[in-house]
């Protein structure tokens, strides 16, 4: 299964799983008159939105390059992952606010075995989705999968906290819900902020990391016909980069030979370095004694 097909499956499973949780939470909330479970159902509705963003973002990102987008649509991954991260930040602030209110107003969770059953089902589904997303992310390094993975993990942790709070409420520990909620909300906020910053860097065309850039330069200089490398720049197209650089070659080489060196090098770099989508090389013929260290 390729990168985009796998991400499509992640989004689809997220929609189905969260839709199922939304339905059972609404049923239990109505049957038990639990406002806490109703709020949790609203959270599941938000999770459907996140999974939908993953699905749509991946569909756009998988579109091949065209006349309007010469280097493809890869940045769609980061646009939609940023939308998910913003939603995570909003949810974190809402949970934190509600948690503080429950602490100061001494609001208690109404104990119910139905609530416990729903919490357990939620934890099982969310952990399963998290593990699937984690396996997919390790294979494809797609930021949309990463955002979904963290969203599922956060929901599982939040529901564990809710479950503990429900059990403790039976024994009179009414502050547990607010304390757990405030701690988890901070954790969710940090996760959302990290995804936001990662997306922002790519959308602002941050350069390839220095270590990979240095490795590529050393790889180029290992070719005996290349005397030097200058003007090495990279532009993000999504999860991959376009590398634009100049190589100095012996001016006594004919035009065909020097350009053949560049063509071969472009192919070798894209095959060796998975982060590189395309290489554009300018050939600069010089006398050997005119070359300078990079």
Describe the structure.
With 294 residues, this protein is mainly alpha-helical. It has two domains: 3-203, Alpha-lytic protease prodomain-like, CATH 1.20.1510; 210-290, Alpha-Beta Plaits (2-Layer Sandwich), CATH 3.30.70. The chain contains eight helices and three strands, in the order H-H-H-H-H-H-H-E-E-H-E. The protein has helices at residues 3-32, 35-61, 76-104, 113-140, 143-169, 176-203, 210-221, 255-272, and strands at 226-236, 241-250, 276-286. It has a three-stranded mixed sheet with strand order 1-2-3, covered by helices on one side. Helix 8 (255-272) links the parallel strand 2 and strand 3 (276-286). The protein starts with a helix and ends in an 8-residue tail after the last strand. The model has no long low-confidence stretch (mean pLDDT 84).
First-last Cα distance: 42 Å
Poorly predicted regions:
none
Please provide the ordered H/E string of secondary-structure elements. HHHHHHHEEHE
Helical stretch tally:
8
CATH class of the largest domain: Mainly Alpha
Would you count the extended β strands for me? 3
Outline type: elongated
Q: What would you say the CATH architecture of the largest domain is?
A: Up-down Bundle
Sheet-strand content, in percent, reads 5-15%
Overall tally of domains:
2
What is the percent of helical residues? 55-70%
CATH homologous superfamily descriptor of the largest domain: Cation efflux protein transmembrane domain
Q: In terms of quaternary structure, what is this?
A: single chain
At the fold tier of CATH, the topology name of the largest domain is Alpha-lytic protease prodomain-like
Q: What is the average per-residue confidence, as pLDDT, rounded to a whole number?
A: 84
Helical/strand content category:
mainly alpha
Largest beta-sheet details = 3 strands, mixed
Which sequence of strands runs across the widest sheet? Answer: 1-2-3
- From the alpha carbons, calculate the radius of gyration and give it in angstroms: 26 Å
């Amino acid at each position: 299964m390729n990168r985009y097909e796998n991400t499509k499956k992640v989004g689809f499973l997220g929609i189905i799983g969260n839709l199922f949780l939304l339905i059972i939470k609404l049923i239990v909330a109505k049957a038990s008159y639990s406002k806490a479970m109703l709020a949790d159902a609203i959270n599941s509705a938000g999770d459907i939105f996140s999974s939908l963003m993953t699905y749509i973002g991946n569909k756009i990102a998988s579109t091949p390059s065209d006349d309007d987008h010469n280097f493809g649509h890869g940045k769609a991954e980061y646009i939609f992952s940023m939308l998910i991260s913003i939603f995570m930040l909003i949810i974190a602030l809402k949970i934190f606010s509600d948690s503080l209110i429950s602490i100061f107003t001494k609001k208690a969770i109404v104990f119910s075995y139905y609530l416990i059953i729903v919490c357990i089902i939620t934890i099982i589904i969310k952990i399963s989705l998290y593990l699937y997303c984690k396996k997919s992310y390790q294979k494809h390094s797609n930021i949309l999968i990463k955002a979904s993975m963290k969203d599922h993990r956060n929901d599982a942790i939040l529901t564990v906290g809710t479950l503990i709070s429900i059990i403790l409420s039976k024994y009179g520990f009414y502050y547990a819900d607010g304390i757990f909620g405030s701690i988890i909300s901070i954790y969710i906020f940090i996760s959302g902020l990290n995804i936001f910053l990662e997306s922002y860097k790519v959308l602002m065309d941050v350069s390839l990391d220095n270590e990979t850039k240095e490795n590529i330069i050393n790889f180029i200089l290992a070719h005996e016909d290349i005397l030097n490398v200058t003007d090495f720049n990279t532009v993000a197209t999504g999860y991959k980069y376009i590398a634009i650089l100049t190589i100095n070659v012996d001016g006594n080489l004919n035009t065909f030979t020097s350009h053949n060196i560049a063509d071969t090098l472009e192919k070798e770099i894209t095959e060796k370095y998975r982060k590189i989508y395309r290489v554009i090389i300018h050939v600069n013929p010089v006398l050997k004694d005119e070359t300078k260290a990079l």
